[in-house]
Design brief:
This protein is 77% helix and 0% strand. By secondary structure, the chain is mainly α. Among the domains are: 73 residues, Tetratricopeptide repeat domain (Serine Threonine Protein Phosphatase 5, Tetratricopeptide repeat, Alpha Horseshoe), CATH 1.25.40; 85 residues, Serine Threonine Protein Phosphatase 5, Tetratricopeptide repeat (Alpha Horseshoe), CATH 1.25.40; 52 residues, no CATH class. Helix 1 runs antiparallel to helix 2 and helix 13 runs antiparallel to helix 14.
Length: 389
């Protein structure tokens, strides 16, 4: 927040409270004194009393204060209150009134980013960096916005520069690794996380993310080692337990997987992924009712999640409830008409119902969508059973 006075003074909470009381008494005598209103507004803001600060800055503006600083200060308080539309307008007002400070462009950039306007957010972050070269906070925001805008190559390139400029910074290696993980560059991401761990062995986040890379590469034993280390270092999130549960399942520890899914759900009860994945583990363990319950909860939390419908269909099919299975396969296909897994499952279910014609139509659709791979092999087997090649 910009200071309304000429001198920079470090104030304790007690002195701020005294200042507010003194200024309030003075305002009782001069209610439209712009200097007093802005001074109290700044102190309210420093105390976290943002709504009261906004009220004072608004009164000051109504009384004739047209300064960039007051618009900036009110914008900062609006941002703290989560009123990003108002904050954006005030940051723009400050800039229009001549404020050329990195904080103004960064504040407005954050507002644009929250609105999903990445192009304007990126432009403001770049302007903030022009005004404050090397500002780590602005650089972090710019990289994040580039990534959100789908400009991962540019985001990684900026982090390449950051790493080159400070190769001993574990945080830069960590951020670049996360970008590469999201971009599917798993081996390169692992290299970055490994370097981050070498620089900062206490980084639970680096172990957690490296574990995720190993999981996505099918190296579940290595993933478990990293997830366990991350937990030992204090990572206690739903994502960690959910990811470790998947690795435990793939390494044959169903009981351990179910325990970790419980932990994940305790920490984030509205996480559809945890329910969906726990349902698959329950199904493998023969608990089909529990599996159906979990898939249903996942669908309730994310109604357009195609895989959850397909999984519930699989559970219904395994339980012998074939019409319910077909209804869920239909729902999955309606959401994604090119989802080969759903056609394969529905084709098999039609076959169990004796509807060979529809079964073969679905198997041929699988081959049309995926001519090669495991689904294609299963579809050919289905066609062969009916005598069709």
């Amino acid at each position: 927040m910009a200071d309304s006075g000429p001198d920079e003074v470090v104030l304790t909470p007690e002195r701020i409270a005294e200042g507010i009381a003194k200024t309030t008494a003075e305002l009782a005598l001069e209610p439209d004194n712009v200097h007093l209103l802005t001074a109290r507004g700044v102190m309210y803001g420093m105390s976290g009393r943002d709504a009261e600060a906004v009220a004072d800055f608004t009164r000051a503006i109504a009384a004739g204060d047209n300064s960039a600083e007051t618009y900036f200060n009110r914008g900062s308080c609006y941002a703290a209150l989560g009123k990003h539309g108002h904050a954006l307008a005030d940051y723009s007002g400050a800039i229009q009134r001549g404020m050329q400070a990195a904080s103004a462009y960064m504040g407005r950039g954050v507002c644009y980013e929250r609105r999903g306007d990445m192009d304007r957010a990126i432009a403001d972050y770049q302007r903030a960096l022009d005004l404050s070269p090397g500002n780590a906070d602005v650089e972090k925001n710019l990289v994040r916005a580039l990534d959100k805008a789908g400009r991962s190559t540019e985001a990684i390139s900026r982090m390449d520069q950051a790493v080159a400029g400070n190769p001993e910074a574990a945080s830069a290696q960590l951020v670049r690794g996360a970008l590469k993980l999201k971009d599917g560059q798993l081996d390169a991401a692992i290299a970055d996380f490994t370097e981050a761990i070498a620089l900062d062995p206490s980084s639970g986040k680096a172990h957690n993310l490296r574990g995720l890379c190993h999981s996505e590469s099918g190296r579940f034993a290595e993933a478990l080692s990293d997830y366990n280390k991350a937990a030992e270092l204090g990572i206690d999130t739903a994502d960690l337990y959910g990811n470790r549960a998947v690795a435990l399942h793939h390494t044959g520890d169903a009981a351990g997987a179910l325990r970790d899914f419980e932990r994940a759900i305790e920490r984030k009860p509205d996480n559809p992924t945890a329910y969906n994945n726990r349902g698959n583990v329950r199904a493998d363990a023969g608990n089909l009712d529990g599996a159906i319950e979990d898939a249903t909860r996942a669908i309730e939390l994310q109604p357009e999640w195609v895989a959850a419908y397909k999984n519930r269909a699989n559970h219904y099919r395994a339980k012998g409830k074939l019409l319910k299975a077909i209804a869920d396969y239909n729902a999955a296909i309606a959401l994604d008409p090119e989802y080969a897994d759903a056609y394969l499952g529905r084709g098999g279910t039609y076959g169990q119902c004796g509807d060979v014609k529809r079964a073969n139509q679905d198997f041929r659709k699988v081959l049309e969508l995926e001519p090669d791979g495991p689904n294609a092999d299963e579809a050919r087997k289905g066609l062969a059973i009916s005598g069709e090649r």
